[in-house]
Design goal:
Layout: E1 2-4, E2 13-19, E3 22-32, E4 35-49, E5 56-71, E6 82-86, E7 89-91, H1 92-105, H2 111-118
Parallel strand pairs: 5-6
Antiparallel strand pairs: 1-7, 2-3, 3-4, 4-5
The chain binds zinc ion (ZN).
Zinc ion (ZN) is lined by residues 50, 52-53, 55, 109-110, 112-113.
Length: 119
């Protein structure tokens, strides 16, 4: 699922895509020139690898995502939002995969290791 940037208007466009058991649902709205604002909720169950014991474990995601979408190179600076650069088309499937990748690349510890850290 994707949308050409020029079709993003001030009337929010809703989207809903899923990958690997995770759903990304939200809307995107035109802001100015080559910028749009995307607000979405990432939810579902994901399998992560514990950084301590290297065991896989499942966890529920429920994350709010707010991104500025820039058609072309973003030259400004924005403290409030992360910015993603696209070329003419906003691809929601690509977006959900990169969001899942970002979460996977974070530091994670399974419940067992978390409990041991506390003791
Ligand atoms: Zn662990």
């Amino acid at each position: 699922m994707n949308i050409p940037f020029r079709r993003i208007t001030q009337t929010p466009t809703e989207f809903n895509t899923s990958a690997e058991g995770v759903t990304l649902k939200g809307e995107v709205v035109f802001k100015e020139r080559n910028l749009a604002l995307l607000q979405a909720q990432l939810s579902g169950e994901i399998t992560l690898t514990c950084d301590i014991c290297a065991e896989d474990f499942a966890t529920m995601l429920n994350e709010k995502i707010e991104l500025l979408v820039s058609d072309g190179v973003y030259k400004g600076f924005n403290e409030t939002y992360d910015v993603i650069e696209i070329e003419e088309k906003l691809d929601f499937d690509e977006l959900i995969h990169s969001e899942i990748e970002l979460i996977r690349n974070d530091y994670h510890s399974c419940d067992n290791c978390k409990n041991q850290e506390r003791n």
